[in-house]
Amino acid sequence: MDRINLGGSELEASRIVLGCMRISEMKTDALARHISTAIEHGINLFDHADIYGRGECERKFGKLLATELDRKDILIQSKCGIRHERKKDVQYYDLSKAYIIDAVDGILERLGTDYLDLLMLHRPDALMEPEEISEAFDRLHDTGKVRHFGLSNFNANQFDFVQQHTSHKLITNQVQFGPAAAHLVNSGMQANTPFEGAADRDGGLLEQSRLNDVTLQAWSPFHYGYFEGIIMDDPKFEKLNKVLEDIGQSHGITKNAAAIAWILRHPATMQTIVGTTDTSRLEDIAKAGNVRLSREEWYQIYATAGNMVP
Ligand SMILES: NC(=O)c1ccc[n+]([C@@H]2O[C@H](COP(=O)([O-])OP(=O)(O)OC[C@H]3O[C@@H](n4cnc5c(N)ncnc54)[C@H](OP(=O)(O)O)[C@@H]3O)[C@@H](O)[C@H]2O)c1
Fold first, then answer.
1. pLDDT in tens, 232-241
2. At what angle do helices 255-265 and 295-304 cross, to 10 degrees?
C-alpha cells in the first residue's frame, strides 16, 4: 500500500488508517489479530481519541503495545478537546492550554507510550484562544510528547486562524468524507448554480488543504448523513451497492473496498480512516490500496450515491 508524507512532514503513513473508535468492544485476542493483520497489509497509522470508549480504546491498544507491537514500527495519532461531564450530562469542547496539556498526559498514560506522532484537536471550540493552543503545542513539542499537530472537523478559515498563531505546521485535517457524505466536493461540483448543494459549508476546505499541503483524513467512509447509518446493504442505497459491487468485481475487490478506492482516487491524496472491527473485512478493504478507479467509475459512484452532477 502506498505511503505518503503527512502534510509534507517526515511522517510516512499508509493511505488507509485503522480507526480505533470501536476497539473497546473487541476481545484482546481478536484485537491482536486485527492489528497484526492491518500491519501485514501495510497499514502503519492508528487513529485514536481520548473519548473513544471513554479511554478504554487507548488502554486496550496500550496493552498490545506493551506486549506485541514495536512502537517504532507504527505511527499513533490521537485527538482531544471533546469533554463530557457525566454528572451534569453536558458535552462541550475545550481547547484551553491546560486542558490540551492534561489530555495528552492522559492519552500517553493510557497508551503506555512516551510520545504521539500526531495530536489533533477533535472539533473547533467556540471559545478557543489560538494563543493558548499555540502555547500548548510548544510545550508538548518541547517536552517530546508530541511530534506533529493537526486539526479535525475545522473549516478552512478556522484552520488558517489556528495556523497563523502557531509556528508548528498543521499537517492534517480529519473530516467526514465518503460516497454518501461527499459535502467536501459537492459545493465545488455545483459551483455557479442556484442549487442547494452549491452552498459552501466549509470555506473551500478541499482547495485550501491542497494549496497548503495539508493531508485530509476521511473519517467514517461508509456512513451517510451525520452518523445516520452506513450505505452497505441499506435498501435506500440499493443502486449504489450494485454499482460498487460491479465496479469492485471488475477490479477484483469487494464493494467496501470499491468505496475506499473512490476516496483514494481523489487527487487530493487523502487518507481514509476505516473503523471496521471485522478482520476479514479489513483484509478486503486493504486491497483498495492497489486499485485506481477510472474517472468514469469515480463519477458513476458519486452520482449513484445521490450527489448531483449538474
Ligand atoms: N474526527 C472525527 O470526528 C471522527 C468521527 C468519527 C470517526 N472517526 C474515526 O474514523 C474511524 C472510522 O469511523 P467508523 O467506524 O464510524 O467508520 P466506517 O469505517 O465507515 O464504519 C464502520 C462501521 O460500518 C460497519 N460496516 C462496514 N461495512 C459493512 C458491511 N459490508 N456490512 C455491515 N457492516 C459494515 C462496520 O462494522 P464491522 O465492524 O462489523 O465491520 C462498522 O460498524 C473511527 O474509528 C475513528 O477513528 C473520526
1. 999 999 999 9
2. 110
Cell of 188: 465545488
Pick the residue whose CA is nearest to atom 36 on ligand 1: 276
Atom of ligand 1 nearest to the CA of 277: 39
pLDDT tens digits along 162-218: 999 999 999 999 999 999 999 999 999 999 999 998 999 999 999 999 999 999 999
Radius of gyration in angstroms for the set of CA atoms belonging to the chain, rounded to a whole number:
19
Closest residue by Cα to residue 44 from 69, 74, 21: 74
The residue contributing the CA closest to ligand 1 atom 44 is 19
- Domain 3-304 belongs to what topology? TIM Barrel (3.20.20)
Q: How far is the CA of 259 from the centre of ligand 1 (A)?
A: 13
Pocket of ligand 1 (CB under 6 A): 19-22, 47, 152-153, 174, 219-223, 230, 232-233, 256, 273-278, 281
* CB contact set of 26 (below 8 Å; sequence gap of 6+): 34, 60, 277
CA 144 / ligand 1 centre spacing (Å):
31
Question: Cα-Cα-Cα-Cα dihedral of 49, 50, 56, 59, to 10°?
Answer: 90
